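Bench notes, afternoon.
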Amino acid sequence: MTVRLPQGALELGPPRRRAVLALLLINAGKVVSTSSMIRSIWETEPPDHAVATLQSYVSRLRRLIAAQPLYGGAALRLEYRSPGYVLDAAPDHVDVMRFERTVGRGLAAQRRGEPSETFALLSEALRLWAAPPFEDLAGYEFADQEAVRLDHLRLTAVETRAEAALALGRSEEVLPELESEATRHPMRERLVSQLMRAQYRDGRQADALRQFEHTRQYLAAELGADVGPELRRVHEEILRHDPSLASTSFHDAPGSPFTAARPAPTAEPAAAGPSGTPEQRANGDCAAFTGRRSELRRLLAALEAGHRGEGRTVLVVGEAGAGKTRLVQEFGRLCQEAGTDVVTVHCPPCDDMPPYWPWTQGLRRAAARRPDAVEALPESARRVLACLVPELDRDRGADDRPLPSGPGRFEFHDAVSQALLGLSRRPLVLVLEDFQWADAASLSLLAFLTRQSAESRFLLVVTSRTFRIADDPGLRAARAAVLQSLNAEEIQLGALAPQHTGQIVTAARGHDVGPELCAALHERSGGNPYFLLGLVEALPDGAAAEDVRDLVPTVTQEVIIERLSGLPADILAVLNVCAVLGPDRVHGAVEDVGSGDWKSSDAARRAVRGGLLAVDESAPERIDFVHPLIRDVVRQELASAEPNRRTVCSFAAGALDPDRTCEATHRRAHHGALRAVASP
């Protein structure tokens, strides 16, 4: 680490003083607390007067740099801001920041399908890389972690630049670099694939085939795994001399990111990338990500916190079809581009799911990517976890180790936390999708891990459906426990805004759609992206707004029926009554029979809390379905199920005249309920 002045390099002093400056520079523009600095500089063995010693280091650094202008008259400013210190540095005067920013611009050019611009920008970025960062601070964990992060970003730049060179027919310019990097990083299959293609173009078919065999044997020996489908495909293409291997057109190159035609840019794109702010990345890189940019910004902000060593847990909650999976997929794409590993686990809706299944899968996949981190785990943790993930304990078999006796067992929770946090010495994101189906043991571990990860580079993202997390007692307790932690937050995916509905409809139809039709689609879908796309797909050409009001696409109907089948019986009963009575009479009906066998009052409140029904704020006596589509599907199902229909209609009639004092009123109400069911 060097500070260069017009008159020469600045002498920074002993290693710990340089380490303090490095820590502040890594977090440039952000306050680093005194306690965090002491942990980073001395780790587990701070001196007796650590605060005073730290203050002396800062004071000497301030005197060194305060009166020393950089090139162009810029200055470094080191100030105290409670609860710690902050170093302000202009990005143009910090080579790491310039490197990250230029890589970000190169990756943005790649996404636009511009290989020439990509190659030029990433070549410029890689020229800034003079040596591995922080070699003089080896042994400081924070410096080692930052060096690993930057090296991952450099490798991403190397690979993307090589892909651009292959697309441009300039493979000979990157061939020596690819050979060197593939030797140092034999597990990066994308790198090996690019090397093989470049060797083949250089007339070295035999070398390309030997490289494949070497990689295959290395992965088998180190991981017990075979090569991936992309590398195998390139191998097969070389064997049969596929003409596409010699293609220099970025439209024809197989597997190339430059396969799509480039749209004509309408404005200069934002310079977004790993060095950009979360707002820049959400607004610039994700211009086509409609309606969820603010939520994406919050996830990216959590990622930034993780890179600073402030671990986060983020709950993403929304109804089925709200776009939870699409959101975390887009977030994962940006993480990968920034050089951060993302491990995703999907929880299946299985009643016989074994204890800790989501955590088991997450540990297994993260360990496969980071075998070096597995070796560094404490033996005690590996021994406890070997019953679930045998590869974490290579020295012993797991046959004689029974599963931990209870889901709340502290030793087991602590072992899982040690393993995941150990694997996160360089930033790691674990995404647990559909956690509403997780077993009770997995729920009990969630809050424990959230608390333990507060000072780590671990980001946990958990998605769940609104109704389950609002209604299931175990999920509600787990959610409450997690959100009590200061390093946890919840992102609620609500309905799309009308303007976002219009953008999605226009994109799906391929042309502008009138405001009346867009408004009808928005109302019919309730702002649910999945329902909206189903309606658009089922809409005939030339459709008008009135064609949408009663439209129930077959596929959407089947999906709704499947989801309703998983609801509790009392909730379904209230939904049936709501479908029959309509919004004006439901509130009174469920309150009147709240003490009866149906227990409808409590069920109605749960349905509202779970996002199935909604109370009209301007008229609290009105309760209606959040989604008209669900209301109509419930009515259609009642109409096709005779016994259930009679029961609901009888109940509805009784609700309209609970005292049964007037037989004529009862008959009229019963008849009206039947008509409502028969005519959805």
